[in-house]
Design brief:
- This protein is mainly β.
- It has a single domain, classed as Rieske [2Fe-2S] iron-sulphur domain (Rieske Iron-sulfur Protein, 3-layer Sandwich), CATH 2.102.10.10.
- It is 11% helix and 28% strand.
- It is built from 2 helices and 10 strands; from the N terminus they run ααββββββββββ.
- The longest helix is centred in the first third of the chain and has 10 residues.
- The two termini are 35 Å apart.
- About 8% of the residues have low confidence.
């Protein structure tokens, strides 16, 4: 049932859901903020919200990553056990913080095409939200079917930035 809901409504933190909430939610109770140009509204300063609910800070701009790496995330933006998705060179990548170690892998399940960022993280094992196949984010090996492997990307912390190599 959740697969059908994701297909129709989009992922819980995806673009379609945020669009629906923004443009089709009702103002029940009349406490919606006035964001008109004449109001004293000020836009939020956070960059976004990751799947676990933490504030996603903008990646630091003063970091020079090692050759072949891209700065994709502020190291404090992802708490232990949380996941987020970044796009590098048109490639969707899921990044996980596992005990302070940042791990990066393809965000698409090689078995069912599920968005792994919506999956469940237990230690370094990330389960696909569609069929529950578990992938070790350190090695890319699939616990459910050893003949399937998830592409893994090198990730490291440089200053305050998390850098990923494509």
């Amino acid at each position: 049932m959740s697969i059908i809901k994701n297909i129709i409504l989009g992922r819980p933190n995806g673009f379609r859901r945020s669009f629906q909430k923004r443009f089709f939610s009702e103002n029940r109770g009349g406490n919606q903020e006035d964001t008109s140009p004449s109001s004293s509204y000020s836009a939020p300063v956070e960059y976004g919200v990751v799947a676990g609910g933490s504030v996603k800070m903008e990646p630091p701009k003063d970091i020079t990553p090692p050759d072949g790496y891209e700065v994709v995330l502020h190291k404090d933006a992802l708490q232990d056990g949380e996941l987020t998705e970044v796009i590098i060179a048109g490639t969707a990548i899921v990044i996980a913080n596992v005990g302070g170690e940042f791990l990066a892998a393809a965000n698409t399940c090689p078995h069912a095409g599920g968005p792994l960022v919506d999956g469940e993280l237990t230690g370094s094992i990330l389960s696909c939200p569609y069929h529950g196949w578990g992938f070790d984010l350190k090695t890319g090996l699939c616990e459910t079917n050893p003949s399937v492997q998830l592409p893994i990307y090198s990730a490291l912390v440089e200053g305050d930035g998390v850098c990923v190599r494509i």
